[in-house]
Amino acid sequence: MSIDLSWAQEQIAAARVPIPVGKAVVELLTHWGPLTFQTDTQRDQALELFAKLAINEAVIESTDDEFVPVRVGFMLSVGDTVRVRSDAFSGDAGRSANGRVGRVVGKRTGDIVVNSTDGKKPTLSSVHFKPDQLEKKVN
Fold first, then answer.
1. Percent of the chain scored above 90 by pLDDT?
2. Are 33 and 25 in contact (CB under 8 A)?
3. Residue 118's pLDDT is what?
4. What is the CB neighbour count within 10 angstroms for residue 21?
5. Residue 52: what pLDDT?
6. pLDDT at residue 19 in the model
7. C-beta of residue 46 within 8 angstroms of C-beta of residue 34
8. Residue range 25-82, pLDDT digits in tens
9. Residue 131 has pLDDT above 90, yes or no
10. Which domain range does residue 25 map to?
11. How many domains is the chain partitioned into structurally?
């Protein structure tokens, strides 16, 4: 796919995008332009995946398991299966914790204490999470 960078730069200028942001987008477009996809669906999937990974949001594997957001006051019990929200943390913490699955092993002063059960490294052992950073498995 060919991208007209001069048109993109005009769009960025017309929208009064801050210069550092505009430069970053143009740089990304120079790498995007040479890529080819067999379908628009593949292109859209690549964009969605890139957008998530660029901000350290976990890509959650599709399963039949259903998870619902945990809220303060939500009934969680020791032994419940939980997953860290895909966007719970940013940076290094996001890369190591987002999307991880584990078991509730305790509750301490409003925190939910979790041990990972997903077999990924690093193992999460007695890690404290705020309720709104978690999702509970319901099936």
1. 58
2. no
3. 94
4. 11
5. 84
6. 94
7. no
8. 999 999 888 888 999 999 999 998 998 888 877 787 777 789 999 987 778 899 999 9
9. yes
10. 5-54
11. 2
Q: Of all residues in the chain, what percent carry a pLDDT higher than 70? A: 98
Length of the chain: 139
Could you give phi then psi for residue 17, rounded to 5 degrees? Answer: -70, 135
112 phi, psi to nearest 5 deg: -105, 125
- Per the listing, tokens 């019990």 go with 77
Within a domain: 102: yes
- Write the secondary structure of the chain as one string of H (helix), E (strand) and C (coil): CCCCHHHHHHHHHHCCCCHHHHHHHHHHHHHHCCCCCCCHHHHHHHHHHHHHHHCCCCCCCCCCCCEEECCCCCCCCCCCEEEECCCCCCHHHHHHHCCCEEEEEEEECCEEEEEECCCCCCCCCCEEECHHHEEEECC
Domain assignment present for 114: yes
Angle at 132 between CA 131 and CA 135, to 5 degrees: 80
Residues 80 and 124 reside in one and the same domain: yes
